[in-house]
Amino acid sequence: MGLPAIDDDAARIARLQQIIADLLGEATRRGASAAEAVASTSTGLEVAVRLGEVETVEHTRDNGLGITVYFGRHKGSASTSDLSAAAIRDAVAQACTIATHTQEDRCAGLAPAELMATEVPDLDLNHPWNIDVDGAIELARTCEDAARAADPRIVNSEGASLGTHGGLKVYGNSHGFVGGYPSTRHGLSVAVVGKEGSSMQRDYWYSSARAPEDLEAAESVGRRAAERTVARLNGRRIGTCKAPVLFRAELAAGLLRSLTGAISGGNLYRKTSFLLDALETPIFPDFVRVYEEPHRPRGLASAPFDGDGVATCAKDIVSDGVLRTWLLDHYSACRLGLVTTGNAGGARNLSVVMGERDRDAMLAELGTGLFVTELMGQGVNQVTGDYSRGASGFWVENGQIQYPVEEITIAGNLKEMFANLVAIGNDCDFPGSITTGSWLIERMTIAGE
């Protein structure tokens, strides 16, 4: 049996919209001055294989309902997975009771009515995959088989998995706004173990997309996992030094997440950001542009409205190296005395304008230094910008990879790392909602032997 298809989206949306309407009506009857709610339903199929054998097959079907009520500036929230009429009444009652015990908060309330999304454009997010269990198992096996056969040094596998999920979410509030849309997400991944002599390493690769036809071929996912694994064998430690560092594209995306975290409203009004006073000041070299595209067709983070019901829109976050905007939801904007930027839930489909250099050209630009391909630990201080992570990768001399390195730490400060960004490659080769090539940082401290 395959994944249950979402075959009547209009009817399902109408049902969830009615649930939202009932819920908001119940809140009003109980005296709430305002309310908002989100209702969701989802189905999924996950299969996992290891060494050719099926390990798990899991069908999922979930419902969710969250309600927030406001009595003036007092707020209460409750949630349930039961979408029955009785459960809705109980959830509203619980939220109202909680509101009577909360302190008054001058910023508690809905985003302004005039900022609500007036339409819900079709962002091409819904592509159900009617693959059955046998087909899913076969694709996962194909992926793992390709990885295991790619190189004789691949000696074991942590398994391959395929997942396909479809869902529907509807948000509404007492301004009269209600909006919802169906979406899907599919993924394929594999991790394998390599051995040469006494050296053993593991690595992985994956693909993720809204539509199944946009997934990377199973054989390609497997081969890339194997290639990444064997490339790491016989790693060395290097001496402590200061040198240029090239972050592989998928790791550069993590640096962008540090940026968006630093300019998010919650960290700003709590004064826990290293970029507190950085608005309209240069934080990168002038060639850097970072922008958000929440309406990108099939984008993994696309959404027509944010978690407050506010219309999303494309915007430059950084242009000419200058920080142009904060990322605010209604609550944080109120705390800062500003207006929401439509970012309740974060930035959506973040991109960097990439340069002209491919991977080889970026290594040539690096010259002699470290090419980082994996980071470990959580050594990022959002308050000071101090950055210290366990790392592995490759030592590069004269633009050529010499040998893998491991058991090292790279350290710097994000402010300085952003300011000392030398180049951005065009070698974006990973799936996700962030689009960037590799980043070359002028100099960082590398702690080794």
Structure description:
The protein has 449 residues and is α+β, with helices and mostly antiparallel strands. The chain has two domains: 9-230, 2-Layer Sandwich (PmbA/TldD fold); 235-449, no CATH class. The chain is built from nine helices and 17 strands. It has helices at 9-29, 85-99, 133-149, 218-231, 249-262, 265-269, 330-336, 359-366, 414-419; strands spanning 34-50, 53-71, 74-80, 154-173, 178-196, 199-209, 241-247, 290-292, 315-319, 322-323, 350-352, 369-376, 386-397, 400-413, 421-424, 434-435, 439-447. The strands form three sheets. It has a six-stranded antiparallel sheet. It is globular. The model is unreliable at 1-6 (pLDDT under 50).
Strand content: 35-45%
Number of helices: 9
Could you give the distance between the termini?
Answer: 55 Å
Poorly predicted ranges: 1-6
Total strand segments:
17
Structural class: alpha+beta
3D shape: globular
Mean pLDDT: 95
Total separate domains: 2
Overall CATH class of the largest domain: Alpha Beta
Helix content: 10-25%
Return Rg in Å: 24 Å
CATH topology of the largest domain: PmbA/TldD fold
CATH architecture of the largest domain: 2-Layer Sandwich
Encode the helix/strand succession as letters. HEEEHHEEEHEHHEEEHEHEEEHEEE
CATH homologous superfamily (4th level) name of the largest domain: PmbA/TldD superfamily
The major β-sheet equals:
6 strands, antiparallel
Taking strands numbered 1, 2, ... along the chain, how are they ordered across the largest sheet? 3-2-1-4-5-6
